Amino acid sequence: MSGHSKWSTIKHKKGAADAKRGKLWTKLLKEISVAARMGGSDIDANPRLRLAVDQAKGANMPKDNYERAIKKGAGELDGVSYEEVLYEAYGPGGVAFLIEALTDNKNRTTPEVRSYFAKFGSELGAQGSVGYLFSKQGQIVIDGSISEEKIMEIALDAGADDVAQEEDVWIITTAPDSYMAVKEAIDKAKMPVIESKIIMAPSTETQVPEDKLKSFLKLVDLLEDNDDIQNVWHNGLYEEPND
């Protein structure tokens, strides 16, 4: 596919994260704290915590930082308690949005999210209004310099569902339960991982009209720039702007 591929969306999100490492670390530390509170501080026995720590390592977070967040979440140190909130909405061009937040004050976060959509003539939807359009999926993005034979052998043998090439990268998809096994096989083979995480993959996609693209991208940026918002998923297809 051309510029409106899955990888275009990843690049857009990754660029924002790369430019704001501190903001990315803040979001990861929240997730680590919540994961430890809900499932305990043992990384090996807590899949959600294991995934969050893996992402923290991938973001070059110092060990002391995420270990302190684990202790706060497990109650070994004083810390803030976060609530998980899921927002659903349709945005510019009829694109479906699924937004995951961790907040210490829902009465602050919800009006903020609502205001972002209101800026572009949209509003938050009821629970379940768009959630059915998305499903959990593991996704690992590998530098395209790796040979097809090597990546197919390692990824598929480890339990990946699919390996596809888009532009200059390989995109490996897995079932959520197979994600860590595939990621560990990729890491063991020392493949250059660009991004890896559990995503909410859309079952259908909506082409963003050209006259709505600027509004759509601005809305994505506003959402991702909010410290309380962990993930922004959407089903929009679009051509990446040249500037």
How does this model look, in words?
This protein is α+β, with helices and mostly antiparallel strands. The protein folds into three domains: 6-73, Orthogonal Bundle (Arc Repressor Mutant, subunit A), CATH 1.10.10.200; 83-131 and 204-237, Alpha-Beta Plaits (2-Layer Sandwich), CATH 3.30.70.980; 133-202, Alpha-Beta Plaits (2-Layer Sandwich). 42% of the residues lie in helices and 23% in strands. The protein has helices spanning 6-19, 21-39, 47-58, 63-73, 106-118, 148-157, 179-188, 213-224; strands spanning 83-90, 96-103, 134-143, 162-166, 169-174, 193-202, 206-207, 229-234, 236-237. A hairpin with a 5-residue loop joins β1 and β2 (96-103). The longest helix is centred in the first third of the chain and has 19 residues, at 21-39. Mean pLDDT is 90; it is low at 1-5.
The radius of gyration over CA amounts to: 18 Å
Q: Give me the CATH superfamily of the largest domain.
A: YebC, transcriptional regulation domain
What strand line-up does the widest sheet have?
4-5-3-6
Helix and strand content put the structural class at: alpha+beta
Q: What key phrases describe this protein's structure?
A:
42% helix; alpha+beta; disordered N terminus; Arc Repressor Mutant, subunit A; four-stranded antiparallel β-sheet; Alpha-Beta Plaits; 3 domains; 243 residues
